[in-house]
Amino acid sequence: MDIKRANDRPTKMAPEDNFTGQVWQDPVIVGEAPSRMRATNVSFTPGARTAWHSHPVGQTLYCVTGIGRVQLEGEQVQELHPGDTAVIPPNTRHWHGAASDRLFIHLAMSETSDSGAGTEWFEKVSDDDYNKPPAPVG
Ligand code: MN
Fold this sequence. Notes:
3% of the residues lie in helices and 43% in strands. The chain has one helix and 13 strands; from the N terminus they run βββββββββββββα. A hairpin with a 5-residue loop joins strand 8 (68-72) and strand 9 (78-80). The relative contact order is 0.25. Bound molecules: manganese (II) ion. Manganese (II) ion is lined by residues 53, 55, 59, 88, 94, 96. The site of manganese (II) ion has 6 residues, from strand 11.
């Protein structure tokens, strides 16, 4: 058994090219073949978010704490609360991040493609797009 110790894995600041605002990443796992699993605990400060991006095999986001935002391109922004799970379809442009006035932490889970491809990154999310009101939570 391989126990990856927290002490050996400092929190990393997310790369500025692909995020707006301060975002911190705690690695959970990068699976070794035959596993294709990848999981990261991501902490967004208020107003922080990813750039537009897509995942070849989709992505599952589990909201751990705070209030978040997620949007598939062409759809309304959705609000995320602790215990919510958002399922992002494969090859679909989207973004996720914190509400403007709340921290947000989610566990991001995905798999690489058969050929080993991971996330594809696009442009940053504009303030106009980010500030659109989220759909009411049912
Ligand atoms: Mn994503």
